[in-house]
Structures are given as C-alpha cells and as structure tokens.
Amino acid sequence: MTNDKTIDPAVKTMLEIAEAEGISTAFSRAAAMKQCPIGSKGGCCKNCSMGPCRLVGKHDRGICGATRETVAARGLARMIAGGASAHSDHGRDMALTLLAAAEGEAPDYTIRDVNKLLEVAELLDVPTKDRETMEIAKEVAEAALAQIGNQRGEILYLKRAPKKRQEVWRKAGVAPRGIDREVVEIMHRTHVGNDQWYDSILMAGLRTALADGWGGSMLATDITDILFGSPVPLTAQVNMGMLSEDEVNIVVHGHEPTLSEMILVAVSDPEMIEYAKSKGAKGINLTGICCTANETLMRQGVPTIGNFLSQELTIVTGAIELMIVDIQCIMQALAPVADQFHTILVTTSPKAHIEGATHVEFDEHRALEIAKEIVKMGIDNFPNRKETRIPKEINHLVAGFSHEYINYALGGFYRGSFRPLNDAIVQGRVRGIAGVVGCNNARTCHDYSHEYITRRLIENDVLVAMTGCGAIACAKYGLLSPEAAQYAGPGLREICETTGIPPVLHVGSCVDNARILTVLSQMATEGGLGEDIADLPAMGFAPEWMSEKAISIASYFVGSGLYTIMGSESPVANSPIVDRFISESWEERIGGKLEFISDPEEAVQKALEHIDKKRAALGLVEYDPTRFGQSGDRLMQQFIEAMEAGLPVNIYSATVPQLA
User: Fold this and answer.
1) Residue 531 burial (CB count, 10 A)
2) Residue 347 gets which letter from DSSP?
3) Domains of the chain, each with CATH number or no CATH
4) Angle at Cα 114 formed by Cα 108 and Cα 118, nearest 5°?
5) 175 in Cβ contact with 166 (< 8 Å)
6) pLDDT tens for residues 213-238?
7) Which element (helix H / strand E) includes 182?
8) What is the pTM of this model?
9) In degrees to the nearest 10, what's the CA dihedral of 336, 340, 344, 345?
C-alpha cells in the first residue's frame, strides 16, 4: 500500500505502478530494511579498525576509551563537515567558473547582474572605481577562492551579519577562519586519539557550519546571481504532469547551475528543435528535479517535476529520453531503473560517477558545445520511446524571491527597506518568520511534514521562506501561489493580498539558505526587532531531512541565533548529555538551539511558543489574530454584494449602501 508513503498523488500513482511491476525504489527499500538502532542514535564508532564499537547497554566506552559523549559528538561533527564540504565545494566551483569567464576562458558565460558583482566586490574588499566589469569579476573570483582557503583571521562575509552577532561569535570562539580549514580541522579533531571532549568537538563543529552558511554557501549563491542573474518572481508549474507526450523529455537533476543553464540554452537552439522534429518529436521539453530544478525554475521558469524521492519514479513514467545529473542527492539506483526503460542516464561531474551510466564530463570552457552534445543524445533516443504513463497532476507556483527582491518589493523601487516587514511584525500582523528547508526522507511520509508544518505556520500568521526539496513539496500543494493567502491567518493574509506575494516564499535551492540568513540580518539591522538575529521572532525547520548538508544548514542556522527543529529522532540520542548540549548549551553560548522532533504538530507548537517568547522579550504587542483582517474582509464583502445588486458604490468611501 502507498497511502502512508506519500501525499503526492503523482508519486502515489507511479509508486503503485512500480510496486506492481516489481521495480525497486527508495520507498520499497526503506520498507524492507530496518534502520540500525545503534548507529541511528549516534552509538556506533567506526573511526578505526579496532571497531566498530557499539556503545549500548553496559558498554559505555569504546576500545580506545571514547565515551558515549565523544562518539556522538564526533559523529555529528563529521556530518556537519560532510555537509559543509558539499555546499562549500559547490561554492568553489562557482568561483572557478566566474574566474574562467572573467579571463575569457569560458566564453559561454557572462556577467548578468553587474550590481550584484559590485555589492560582492565591496564585501570582499575588491576596488571597483574606474574599473572594467571583467577586471572586477576576475578579482572577485580570486578573493572568493582566497576565502575558501583562508588560514587566519575571519572570513569576510561575517560582515553581513549584525554587529552583535559578530561579537557573539568572537566571544564563543566560533568565528570561522577559512572554509577548507574548518572542514579539515574537524576531520583531524575527530580522528582516533585526538580531540576527546564533546564540548570542544561540538563548538568546532558549529564553527565549521558557520563557515558554510556565511562562507561557501553564501559565496555560491552570490556568484550564481552574478553569472545568471538575481531571481525575481515568476510563475511556473510543478509536478509530473509537466512531462510531454509528444516532445523529447530531458530532465536535469542535481545542483550545478553552470550545467543546467547551458542545457537550457542548448534545448532552446532552433537547430536543436528542428533536429528533434526530424526524429518525430514536436519539440524539446526541459524539466528538472531537486535543486538544479530550483535554479532553472527561479530564473527561467523551467518546470519542476519532483523532489528527491520522486527521481526514480519519474523514469517509471516511460516518458524521459534523457536524465542529466551532476552532483549531490542523486541516487545510484537511477541506473538500474533507467536500464528497465529507454531512458539514458548521463553523469557529468568528475566528482560524481555512477556505474552503468553514460559519462560525458562537463567542462565550463566548452560549456555550450558539450551541452548540445548531451541534448543530441536525448533527441536521438526519442524514437525508442514505448508506452508512457504520465500522471496528470500539475500545480502552479510563484518562485524567485531573492533577498534583493523582497527588500525592494517592500521598501520601494529606489530604496529597498525591510521596515514594512518589521513594522508588520511589531504590529502583530505577522507573528514571526520561519525558514522551512531540507530534503525528503524515505523513513517518513513523503512531503507530509513539509506541507503540514508550513500550512500550520501560515495559519498562525507566520511568514515562511522555503528552499530546496521542501519548497518543491509545498509548491505541489498550492502553498507557493498568491491564492494561498486564503490559508493564511488574517494578518498575514492582509499583507499577502496587499503586496501580491504568497505566504510561502520560494527563495531558491538548498545552497540558497544563505538568502534567509541575509534577510534575517537585514531585519535585525533595520531596527525595531532587537539588534541580533537571535532577538527576532524567527525559527528554522528541516522537517524531512536526510543528508549531511541538512545537518550543516541546521547548525549554521543555530549558530546564527535561531531555534531550529529537525524531524526524526536525534542522531545523538544515545548520549543525553550531547543531546542537551546542542540545545541548552548552544543556546546559552550563541543564542540558537537544535532539537529533533518527529511529531509535526509538536514542532509547530514549540515554534509558536518560541516566537511568542521572542515577541514578549522585545516588548511587542501580544499576538491576537482577531485584531486584523476581519473588518476589512467584511467591508470588501459589502462592496461586492452592493455591486452585484447594481447599487452605486463609492470606492473611495467607507460608506456602502445597505442592502434590504
């Protein structure tokens, strides 16, 4: 039965087909394989060949003498390091692409957002006066690469944080020095026989996470904006119904916009379209999965057909000629599934090979040439298509809310400002802010926690910013469209109906959580809501997390001063001391705390309690949903009824003719 595995009708349909045909998927493998009850709680150490040591029951120490606390802390710190390395290495690749473009070695890339380039140049201490754009771009790329390898002092992007937050970091000793340095140091610290005190290990882990959030990930987002343009809102479609019955279906999946943007250029080439028609297709249909989908979605409006747990099932539709993957969140299981259909699976990154897939290595120096070569493979495969079973589900969303757009949408064209948003929180129209991010997890009901938590938050007047697979999840249930204002509380609904924004803002891919940090920083420095991110009535969530990247993201949210809740059982539950440390001790030292709560409603209630606590600490009015919305709604209804009755109405007056 699939009822308890997903709430997405399209995924449910394809899962039933996969089960009937005996096709292995993440869902079926999760059902057949139990989690290790020791490792899942942080009770297993395999850092040397004397182990693995299982610290359960009467066993409180490993062979080397490591305690439960040390083992749990090492495991969590290594997860942070793994996640930080993934997103920050992506940032390095973006900087290398910018450098190649600036030096004329990657002619297919250019600078699409000069203003963003100048802003980043200022942050990285790169002079801009009387200099050519490409000269500035070259030095910005070199400065970004220097930040990744920086050995002393602090990374420069910490300047984006409120001054009070910077002081907190320095006092706690967690201001990151350099991105690579922090990741390597964690691996060194957690090697057998090295750092063996959970306190110092976990604080170093926090510093590594901050190097990711305020370093590698933030650089990745900024450089992507420079090369491909800062997103602005646009309408788009989501879910498997966007696959085409009569066009060549090409899917991009992964995280590298350097690849997906060139694939988009290639499929738009008139010669390629004509070539597709020569093979019997009406054209080429480009769609995406996961964060590559989010990148092309928020800049170009390319439709998204699913998130992490959808990837195998999209191939089961029989409609995909070519799936192009690069890095991160790509299941090795795609290759055997593709073998059962006509789909060609192409890997493109030198860092991510899959046995059984076709490998065409992508090189930014010959980007468009290689993109066309790959697209041609998909077109040539179209005549091999057999039966298709494409679900009909299509949902609409508005994507592309960069922090720059939010700033100017609220403040004005000539001068952006977060003052209107801050004022709405002060007045109680908006109760608070939440960042809901993260993956899907086959151990939970697909999309359920994302949708439930997000819907409950906006019902309670909490404005939500979403990234990654969580954003794709809620888009499938109508929460990322302006019409979703009807599900919001009265105060938030007023804001949404006045500005035309949805109550849930799509702010990008999972690396773009840095945009949320920037928004929160600007809110804190705008005034009226304290002086630090930790003062804000704000929350972080990762309801269905599964990857190390999510642990790093959650940890840099915490390090930035946010109470952050993750779904599922705690991965350090085997050590109650460590579990308390990442909650209570982190909160005492840096203002944020991390908790793992598997029940979505409990998570929502704890979040609302926290938001109200922060409101009270700021001396704001107590949240009261009855104060806003109703009088205006009633007046509007009277206008509508009067107009329908043909009575004269003065739209500039609050006086409405009374109906008999």
Assistant:
1) 14
2) E
3) 63-228 (1.20.1270.30), 240-384 (3.40.50.2030), 398-627 (3.40.50.2030), 630-660 (no CATH)
4) 130
5) yes
6) 999 999 999 999 999 999 999 999 99
7) helix 179-189
8) 0.93
9) -20
